[in-house]
Amino acid sequence: MRHETCAVEAIDLEKTYKNGVKALKGVSFCIQRGEIFSLLGPNGAGKTTTVKILSTLIKPSGGTAYVGGYNVVEESSNVRRIIGIVPQDLTADDEMTGYDNVYVQARLHGLSRNEAKKKTKEVLEFMGLLEAANRKARTYSGGMRKRLEIAMSLVHSPQILFLDEPTLGLDVQSRRHLWDLIRKLKREGTTILLTTHYMEEADTLSDRIAIIDLGKVVALGSPEELKARLGGDRIYIRPALNQDLSLIKEKLVSKGYEVSILNGEVIVKVKKAEDSLFDIINLLRDLKISSLRISKPNLEDVFLELTGRKLREEEPLDSFRYRIHSMRVRR
Amino acid sequence: MMRATLVLLVRELKKWFGRKPVLVMSLLTPVLWIALFGKSLNLTNMLMPPGSLEGISPEMMKVLQQMVTARLIELFGTTDYFTYMSSGMLVVFAVFQGMFSGISIIFDKRLGYMDRLLVAPIPRLSIWLSKILAVAVRVTLLSLLLLAVSLLLGMNLKEGVGVIDLLASWSYIILLAMTIASLYALLSFYADNQEIVFAAGNLLNLPLMFTSSAMFPVEQMPDWLQKLASANPVTFAADLVRYHLIGRPVGDYTAELVKLVVIALVMLVVSGWASLRWMNNR
Ligand SMILES: Nc1ncnc2c1ncn2[C@@H]1O[C@H](COP(=O)(O)OP(=O)(O)O)[C@@H](O)[C@H]1O
Ligand SMILES: [Mg+2]
């Protein structure tokens, strides 16, 4: 057992899967007791792999990790006693009732029959599943199944909880509900490791975030610290004609703006968008612009800045943003 | 270890009992086998001397009949093939049920439940053990039912069959069931889809059954088949069970018993070890 400075400590974790995929290339972080810590990164970044190693499901190919002071490889049974895990994929047995799913977990964690019964009821109630408790899990909706997973992982009151993309595929209401719950668990003293590729989720819930990409931590800090790295707002300008990109850049650079081009857009870094917007529009008044939007400091931009790629390729970049709808500047 | 195993065993059985149609079918299958197969393939009747032989004196007829009877007893240990077959069926069904350890493991793996079990603070061997024991319990219940139905349909137990005979037969059937369950468990931890288990079942069940004394006596088989049969644990279990239930003599009781136990132990140890290895090396 290691002296407990961190509730969870990853030291240079590496994982190469049997098929040769290098999923982790040296991941390190330290999660303080009682904090909500997020791993934020796109699909394939290595979040699930990290969680699997920390929860003793798979072994690292290099590096070490301690959970609650216990080495995840050498003292795995101690680790399993103190953690709860909500995996990314569903694990409940859909042929069993919600109640039985939770009860079996309680018993496997060493609770006596009576304790297990009591705790099962308690946790099902906490997750709002008491009424559906005696139905087969097969009949549950997506949100209910996720809550059942959480109930299964909470029934033994774990000190440390791993939540791997807990809100993936949930509707907005279920998502809010889950956020409240995660906050409640934190207030009760649970240390929480959350993985997500929703930047607003990481932003609103986390005490600290590790941004992870291609098996590496590329930045680590509180949401505020990370956003402060941007040094201000961003203005995204998409010209109607692609060949205007460099022209726009030239014009702006000559006026002393900090400018870059990415994915058919010109990105202008400014202290405060409101102060520079009219000046910029004025500069570009001769060009045909298809869209222009302002982006307040956010984690999406942090990721973009660090990796040159978007966090979520499949969805529009600006889904959660303050933006100006197709503001056109015409001749 | 025992506690976790028990919790998981209860889960397996609860699921089995929860699947009402499956339960009914798995109870009906052996009953139908016994009733239809056992009664239609009645070697005793087939072997009787023809009733319409002309010019044969009643004495001669008697001798013929005695010859047939002697041959029947020599082969089956009874004049009644149905009794021979239904006692073998008890063993064959233990083999068929062995597959369910594998199916259960594959589904736990595919549905993610296995991941749940692997992060639970329990000895991982209990995961494997619960699957093997679930088969043992299933086989116990099915065997009792099968025996009851066989008796109703006219199976003749040996004179003075006792509790010891029943317990011994039960142990051998369970031992065989666990041997086969170990094989499928091993296969299923390393395989990643259920088809492999079904394919293995189709591949193995028939040969295991027919290269043994379960359905037909080994003595009348061609040489090469006899060799196979004398290495097949199904043969040992069938011979031993028959000795206890219907009083058919067994060549060398101790030798067959030792072989059955050794094969079972080897399979259990190899399967348990390999399954743990799979669980621990991911
Ligand atoms: N069991 C596995 N075998 C081989 N490669 C895997 C396996 N699981 C994940 N990977 C690969 O490892 C990388 C990281 O995956 P993962 O940890 O699931 O990322 P994330 O959870 O951040 O989406 C991906 O390239 C993925 O394809
Ligand atoms: Mg993942």
Number of helices of chain A: 11
Strand order of the largest sheet of chain A: 6-7-8-3-9-10
Q: Give the percentage of residues in beta strands of chain B.
A: under 5%
- Given helix and strand content, the structural type of chain B is mainly alpha
Strand content of chain A: 25-35%
Structural class of chain A: alpha/beta
Mean pLDDT over the full residue set of chain B: 89
- pLDDT below 50 for ≥5 consecutive residues: which ranges of chain A? 314-331
Biggest interface, chains and residues, is: A-B, 27 and 23 residues
State the helicity of chain B in percent bands.
over 70%
What order do the SSEs of chain B take from the amino end to the carboxyl end, as H and E? HHHHHHHHHHHH
Biggest sheet of chain B: strands, sense, closure?
none
Instruction: Indicate the percent of residues in helices of chain A.
Output: 25-40%
Q: What is the rounded Rg of chain A?
A: 23 Å
CA-CA gap between termini of chain A: 71 Å
Ligand catalogue: adenosine-5'-diphosphate, magnesium ion
Radius of gyration of chain B: 21 Å
Summarize the helices and strands and which ones pair or pack.
The complex is a heterodimer of chains A (331) and B (282).
Chain A: E1 8-16, E2 22-31, E3 36-40, H1 47-54, E4 62-67, E5 70-71, H2 76-82, E6 83-86, H3 98-108, H4 113-126, H5 142-154, E7 160-164, H6 172-187, E8 191-196, H7 199-205, E9 208-213, E10 216-221, H8 223-228, E11 233-239, H9 244-254, E12 258-262, E13 265-270, H10 273-283, E14 289-295, H11 299-307
Parallel strand pairs in A: 3-8, 3-9, 6-7, 7-8
Antiparallel strand pairs in A: 1-2, 1-4, 4-5, 9-10, 11-13, 11-14, 12-13
Chain B: H1 2-18, H2 20-40, H3 43-47, H4 58-76, H5 81-110, H6 113-118, H7 125-152, H8 163-190, H9 194-210, H10 223-229, H11 233-246, H12 253-280
Bound molecules: adenosine-5'-diphosphate and magnesium ion.
Magnesium ion binds next to helix 1 of chain A.
Quick overview:
The complex is a heterodimer of chains A (331) and B (282). Chain A is an alpha/beta fold. Chain A is built from eleven helices and 14 strands.
